[in-house]
Amino acid sequence: MNGRAVSVWRVSLFILVVASIFWLGAVNIRAMIGNDMLKTGTLEFEEIIDPEAEREIFRLLSFASVVIIISYAVVLISGTVFLLTSPFRLKENGWLMMSAILFYAFVPVEAFTMYLDGKMAYWEFFTTNGNDVFRELFVARVAALAGAPVVALLCYYTIIALAVFRPFTKRSLPAHEA
User: Three-state SS for 93?
Assistant: First the structure.
């Protein structure tokens, strides 16, 4: 293995970690911002929220969506580069294989929800739509794919645990024990 390949996988791993922090952080921020807009357990909006405050919430959700879209794209690219160039082989590192499966299985889910997020950001920054349009899109985003984005988020947190504890790593025996 040449020195260039080692530096590529290390740089891609660093970029992957930093972008993941931004991505998952923005996902959590978006959830916290939008959490109080709906009545608990329903898809109905709270009546006590002032329309101007609601508009500001949609603006903040749009900013978070832009961060999510950009950082997810960086995670996707750097993760792929890391898998292609790293010395870790999926056959010997079950934790890495499980992490890759959990991540790439939800790319279609993320693509769909990013389409909705991009639509919200576009409407926020390039149109003058009212709250009713944003409400419809917000409900569509929350109810998207019958909860698959929530399952995806739980899988992403599982990937962190897999990377930390590294289960299912094949250990080779020393030559004198084989």
Answer: strand
Q: Answer whether 105's CB lies under 8 Å from 36's CB.
A: no
| Residue segments in the chain with a per-residue pLDDT below the cut of 70 | 1-6, 172-178
Domain ranges within the chain, ordered by starting residue: 3-36+46-165
Residue 127 C-alpha from the chain's centroid: 26
Q: How many CB atoms lie within 10 A of CB 9?
A: 19
pTM metric for this prediction: 0.89
162-177 burial string, b = 16+ CB within 10 Å, else e? beeeeeeeeeeeeeee
Task: Look up residue 132 and give its two tokens.
Answer: 């009713």
Tokens of residue 68, six digits? 């999510």
Q: What is d(CA 20, CA 163) in angstroms, rounded to the nearest whole number? A: 13
